Amino acid sequence: MVQISIVYWSGTGNTELMAQKVAEGVREAGQEAVVLSVDLADVSELKKARAFALGCPSMGAEQLEETQMELFMCDLENGIGGKQIGLFGSFGWGGGEWMRDWEERVRNAGASVVGEEGIIVNGAPDEEAEEKCKELGRALAVAVS
Ligand SMILES: Cc1cc2nc3c(=O)[nH]c(=O)nc-3n(C[C@H](O)[C@H](O)[C@H](O)COP(=O)(O)O)c2cc1C
Description:
Function: Low-potential electron donor to a number of redox enzymes.
GO molecular function, one term: oxidoreductase activity, acting on NAD(P)H
Protein name: Flavodoxin
Cofactor: FMN
Bound molecules: flavin mononucleotide
Radius of gyration: 13 Å
Oligomer: single chain
Pfam family, one: Flavodoxin_1
Structural class: alpha/beta
């Protein structure tokens, strides 16, 4: 079994719930999932992986959370060429610009966004959003097998 990391930042738990559902999808598809808050994640481990997922809500003004996820992303960016990366996150009132910027950043670093788009959810994930998160997990499991 391949271990797939799901690294997230979440202030009020919405993105964390999404991370748990991505992990469920990975496990349903027969691979191992590890869900890690970004402060506990190791950039060098992700740089060794073929595929992983990153989650962060829209913060600031349509930005990644700046004290942890933004710094993590800066460290990661130069070593993700050829990788398959799932993106997800919750938002409140915006139009999803933070996610489009994030997708572009991942592609500019030479990686692919799993499913072509990050999953964005207004507030807490409902059943349909949870299913999308699981689908992402299943796609990640396929990407490493
Ligand atoms: C400081 C701060 C800035 C935010 N900025 C945005 C924003 O620019 N656009 C948006 O759609 N939501 C914004 N939000 C709303 C969060 O993205 C939303 O509450 C989300 O569900 C939080 O996810 P979490 O529970 O994983 O922390 C902001 C929230 C906070 C606390």
